[in-house]
Amino acid sequence: MFEFYHMMAKSAIPELRCFARLRPHKSEGSVRTQVCIIGAGPSGLLLSQLLHLKGIESIVLERQTQEHILGRIRAGVLERGFVSLMHEAGAGARLDKEGFVHDGTMIAYDNRSFRIDFAKHAKSSVTIYGQTEVTRDLFAARAAAGGKILFSVEDVTIEDATSATPSVSFAQAGQGQRIDCDYVVGCDGFHGVSRRTIPAEVRTEFEKVYPFGWLGVLSQTPPVSTELIYASSARGFALCSMRNENLSRYYLQCPIDQNPDDWTDDAFWDELKRRIPEAASDQLITGASIEKSIAPLRSYMTEPMRWGNLFLCGDAAHIVPPTGAKGLNTAASDIHYLYHAMVQFYHDGDAGGLEAYSQKALARVWKTERFSWWMTSLLHRFPDQSAFDHRMQQAELAFLESSSGAQKVLAENYVGLPY
Ligand code: APR
Ligand code: PHB
Questions:
Q1: Gyration radius from the chain CA atoms
Q2: Helices (H), 39-185
């Protein structure tokens, strides 16, 4: 079946058919696939699974081991569009069973809180389900389908990306290998090789680094609230989130040069209590932390997201600060566009979707960048902030509390803009 689609695609595009004839013979250590995906994070796994279900063959190359990837703790708020993609990938069953559907979120400031009602303002909801579990489900789906993922690969190098015969070379267990393919997809995160393969003169980068980080703690305690609490306080931002009924995730804005070990569990809980409304801190159940880490905050975009037959998806192309939990969800919209574009190409011989990919993906990501930047700017204390700046934040929060229109804007963005 794979060969069938491959042949169909080649014969539909005369220039490619002609290039295909020039392709060197398979040498030892070289294999051929349709799509070579670099990175087995959520982007790479989701794309390879969706393509597989449409009969499009891929190989995923991953620098780390599967255990390492499943040890990463990331955000846990899924837009409805992402949940639909997981279902389309045949990996949504556990998410449906174990995820919590949230119809709203709490915003707190000045020792009080108000609710943004997603159901009322956006007729939608989000699902609380950890990204680690998303990744676990996608690995399981790939394994069940016999998907090819090569772990612990080194020295991944993308060659001839602007030709019709790109290839990816790498080493595994000291053995050099090469994959010949139609397309290379860079799903290899912010520090990957794919973005750097695109020459600097072709790319434009946009970046904002925030002068603080988030100290995150995971604890085996019941969540303090049934919905998330985003709290702005004079001492800095705090977030109360969760994974399940006995697993909570909390964050504190902190100086970026701090070390998680500078924070004892007691110091963390004391500070959290000072930053959230009393009504919540009175309910807070504390316990030993299972994980404690500090993450920097950054907004970053690179344009374009396509160079020849190399496509970028997810963190390889853009980063959002975590306020609003859009990292995984922006990756998902990229995958949505690229997946449909590849199906259009391999099934119908129509490269229109691939041509439009970068523009379409960027248009949505920029809007999500704006939302994440706005949430971050509204809720954090900035070291160089003047008294006037602070009053502006307070006034905006008061406006948000009282205006149904402002709440609708937040709700629409939070549940996810349409693809
Ligand atoms: N060769 C092979 N694999 C690589 C290379 C490389 N040179 N560089 C990075 N990788 C792998 C990483 O080890 C990682 O497993 O690419 C994967 C990228 O995964 P993520 O960083 O999770 O990125 P992505 O899949 O786009 O996910 C986007 O999920 O990880 C979060 O913060 C992220 O929320 C965002 C979303
Ligand atoms: C999380 O649960 O880890 C989380 C939730 C919401 C955010 C960021 C992180 O905005």
A1: 23
A2: 42-53, 66-70, 80-88, 93-98, 118-122, 131-144
243 vs 228: CA distance, rounded Å: 11
Gap from CA of 253 to ligand 1 centroid (Å) = 24
On the question of pLDDT at 273 being above 60, the answer is yes
Mean pLDDT score across all residues of the chain: 93
DSSP conformation class of 315:
G
Tens digit of each residue's pLDDT (9 = 90 or more) over 42-51: 999 999 999 9
User: Where does residue 288 rank: exposed (0-12), middle (13-18), buried (19+ CB within 10 A)?
Assistant: exposed
124 vs 104: CA distance, rounded Å: 9
Segment 309-359, tens digit of pLDDT: 999 999 999 999 999 999 999 999 999 999 999 999 999 999 999 999 999
Predicted pLDDT of residue 389: 97
77 CB within 6 A, ligand 2: yes
- What does the alpha-carbon distance between residue 267 and residue 285 come to, in Å, rounded to a whole number? 14
Tokens of 352: 């229109």
Measured distance CA(358)–CA(356) in Å, rounded: 6
| Rounded distance between C-alpha atoms, residue 98 and residue 344, angstroms | 34
Among residues 230, 251, 337, 346, which one is catalytic?
A: 230
Instruction: Please indicate, yes or no, whether the overall pTM of this predicted structure exceeds 0.90.
Output: yes
